[in-house]
Amino acid sequence: MKMQTVKKLNNEVSKAVQLKGLANGSTVVVAVSGGPDSLALLYSLKDSSTHRGFKLHGAHLNHALRGVDSDNDAKYVHGIFHDLGISHTVAKENVPAFKKLQRISSTEEAARNVRYNFLARVARNSKAELIATGHTSDDQVETVLMHFLRGSSVHGLAGMKESIDRNLYGMQTTVFRPLLSISRSDTESYCHSLGIEPRYDKTNLSTDPIRNRIRLELMPQLKRYNPAIKQSVLRLSRLAAMDSNYIESEVSAVLPNIGTYVDRDLAFTIDKKAFSELPMALKGHVIRRIILIIKNDLKDLDYGHIDAIVKILTGPTGKTFNLPSGMMVTVGYNIATVGFHDPTNCPLPELNGEHKIDIPGETKIGSWIIHSTFTDQTEHHKALGNFSYDYSNNENSLNNISLNSRPSNTRYNAMLDSDSMSGAIHVRTRRDGDRFQPLGMINTKKLQDFMVDSKIPRAWRDRIPLVVSPKGIAWVVGWRPSNWARAKDDGRDKLMLSFSYED
Predict the structure, then answer these.
(1) Which residues make up the CATH 3.40.50.620 domain(s) of the chain?
(2) Could you tell me the maximum CA-CA distance found in the chain, to the nearest angstrom?
(3) Which fold has domain 259-340?
(4) Closest Cα partner for 266 from 169, 203, 339?
(5) Cα 261 from Cα 265, distance rounded (Å)
(6) Quick one: pLDDT at residue 503?
(7) Would you state the torsion angle of the CA atoms of residues 44, 46, 50, 55, taken in this order, to the nearest 10 degrees?
């Protein structure tokens, strides 16, 4: 029976690998936490790699959330990689510090952001085609139920896909989940059969994260009504996935007749008549796709926003509707536009040449006013009030900029590490060849690529101030500071910069 479990799991993973068409010489990054799911994934992929010739690169991130237990997990996984002869990357990140810096309310969300950033870096450095994760059918059930509780559409009820192309922190890669047809009990049996002793995360017993509450509280209750609830939810997921795929194909077919995306303007123009003739069941899905085209994600948007857009597009001319992330819907006579507010009309004043910033002090350059001071962290929060800089993970900070006008009180603030900012500090606009290390990234990227990825309108890019030290670009004003220039929670004074402008 034990060996049957091993054979079953290895066969399922082998089939998934075959469907992905992994060739000889390909590289797969395997995310391994040390738990039974990720260990079963690692050993089964190792078995498959010996037959198909692809290479593995192990990846383990110590989230520094459980003290000694986290450190012991890292040592354990490192030993597993070493024993299997697998090249690997084991790193440690301070998730609590990241959560505080990014002002993320959920530790779970902060840990996820840090983890996928890490996996993206490992994939890039190892030139891997795939990132393999150990999500099981139990994870799929929890995901579907979580989406159901949030009132998700059919796309959410479809749950996770076995394979999905994603842009992770500026890098295009594929997340691969070959264990989605395998249960958590199967991965535990697999490890037991091979004599593997998994590590168990005690925080999984906490009922704080919603996923844990679903697993520990909701599922036992649902089993009282339907003992086969897991199979029922998985069937729902499969049916929803088929419906979702069909809907997406229909959206792709009709979208060229509905309107046009203008990359330069970050806007989608919609033919109102063509849109009105769509079946009602398809209209919301078309809007969903349009938003994804414009801003790459649906963050901060829900069904209520999409439903409101559908209604306004079929309503009177001249209506406007504001959306999160600085987006807006404008309805004309024949044409409606979904996008950022008139991106061709940049609200930022011009900044010509390169100018030294007085530190501490006030520097005036045209319409720009720059204040600088040294302060500790406590004083920083008191001083900034409602104008504190948003260190959110979303690189697109268009919310921080008035897109319709130039209010005189517009202000952008950042708190930077004073030691890293030693030497003469200047402000200028972009130049050919500029590179930048955005907050949260290890490596630099072209400033041009950062601006494109951040959905900064083309007309704006030559007006955005750059704070530059001898080390390089420290802050793209209004968007993101450099990782090397970020303020550190070390109790020492920080450099606080504030940019504002006048009409």
Answers:
(1) 2-230
(2) 78
(3) 3.30.465
(4) 339
(5) 9
(6) 58
(7) 130
Token digits for 333? Answer: 């006579």
pLDDT for 410: 56
Give yes or no for a cis peptide into 360 (omega within 30° of 0): yes
Write down the CATH superfamily of domain 2-230. Answer: HUPs (3.40.50.620)
* Alpha carbons 292 and 169: distance in angstroms, whole number: 16
Please state the φ and ψ torsions of residue 332, each to the nearest 5 degrees: -100, -165
> Count of CB atoms within 10 A of residue 106's CB?
13
Structure-token match 């994260």, residue found: 209
List the one residue out of 409, 408, 410 whose CA is nearest residue 400: 410
* 318, burial (CB in 10 Å: exposed 0-12, middle 13-18, buried 19+): exposed
Phi, psi of 107 (to 5 degrees): -65, -35
Q: What is the dihedral of CA 392, 394, 397, 400, to 10 degrees?
A: -40
pTM score = 0.68
Contact 113, 98 (CB under 8 A): yes
pLDDT of residue 469: 93
Q: Which residues of 251-278 are buried (b: 16+ CB within 10 A; e: fewer)?
A: beebbeebbeeeeebbbbbbebeebeeb
Q: In Å, what is the CA distance from 127 to each residue of 19, 28, 72, 124, 135? A: 21, 9, 28, 5, 23
The CA radius of gyration of the chain, in Å to the nearest whole number, is 25
The token duo for 315 is: 């309503």
Cα(342)–Cα(26) distance, integer angstroms: 45
List average pLDDT for each run of 10 residues in the chain, which is 503 residues long.
81 90 87 96 94 93 89 95 95 84 78 88 90 96 94 92 79 88 94 93 77 93 96 97 96 94 77 93 94 81 87 80 81 84 67 91 91 68 31 32 34 85 91 91 89 76 92 91 84 84 70
Q: How many residues are recorded in the chain?
A: 503
Cβ-Cβ contacts under 8 Å for 447 (sequence gap 6 or more): 430, 434, 435, 436, 466, 473, 476
Between CA 4 and CA 235 the distance in angstroms is 25
Half-sphere exposure in the Cβ direction for 378 (13 Å, CA): 2
CB 161 within 8 A of CB 144: no
Alpha helices in 259-376 (DSSP H): 272-276, 280-295, 303-313
Q: How many CA atoms lie within 13 A of 195 on its CB side?
A: 0
Helices (H) and strands (E) in the chain, counts: 16, 22
Strand partners, 500: 369, 411
**Which of 3, 59, 15 has its CA nearest to residue 181?**
15
